Amino acid sequence: MATSSEKVGPNRQVKPPPVSQHLREFASNPHAWAVLARNMIPVVGIYGFRWSAGLTVFNYWFDGLTALAAIIAACVPRALRESQSKSAPPNPIKLFFSGILTWVFLVGIVGLPYWMVLVPLHRLLLGDNVRHQLAQSPALWFAFGSIAIGHFWKAFRAGYDEMPDNELKQRLRWDVYLLMLRGIAMFMMLGFAFFIVPLMALLLSYFEIWPERVIGAVFGDPKRLYEYDPETDSKRRKIDL
Q1: To 10 degrees, what angle do helices 138-156 and 53-83 make?
Q2: At what angle do helices 112-125 and 165-188 cross, to 10 degrees?
Q3: d(Cα 42, Cα 197) in Å, to the nearest integer?
Q4: How far is 100 from 77, CA to CA, in rounded Å?
Q5: Residues 189-211: pLDDT tens digits?
Q6: What are the sequence ranges of the domains in the chain?
Q7: What distance in Å separates the CA atoms of residue 74 and residue 111, rounded to the nearest whole number?
Q8: Euclidean distance between CA atoms 176 and 69, whole angstroms
Q9: pLDDT tens digits for 36-75?
């Protein structure tokens, strides 16, 4: 039987407060109203002005995936630098291709929720209507290109390469966990495909207003993410059982 000290840990899930507290906090927070209003713009556009639902959902998907890819790209140079041998001089060409392969591999693994969404939502995300609009509109290419460039610019300026180890773990896990949960949430909303845009608007608003509660509900204490150890957590769960 596990003792109380064994059960307490950084990855113990933190239960969110009741809905009534959320509503009180939301009502008294002008920033929360602004966040919700901004995220509801696509909803109004789709139902009021006949915007493309497929293109809007594609934007949600593309925005999350490119943000994740940018963070991984910003961390790859440090990972390669710390893993290479100090005795042998670095080969720039080898390092470059190793970095590209590492980045592609990690985006494929860490971004799995976003790839999984493509299977059931491929008609909506990559349907003829969306592909036609992308092919015919340079403005859309510019818009999505700007989104990607913005994410990469933000990621490389975040300072992942220079952070102390614990600070890096905390910041990296915070950012990546939120983006992964966003992709997982899109996958879980498949049963409500007709309402996926309003649901995504509410979800993104919640993620932006209360990110610490999102992380705490799934991964535990959001202030101690750097302490999370999968092996220790697995052993603790076996002891509890």
Answers
A1: 30
A2: 30
A3: 7
A4: 10
A5: 766 666 888 888 999 999 999 99
A6: 17-209
A7: 15
A8: 10
A9: 999 998 888 888 877 888 888 888 899 999 999 999 999 9
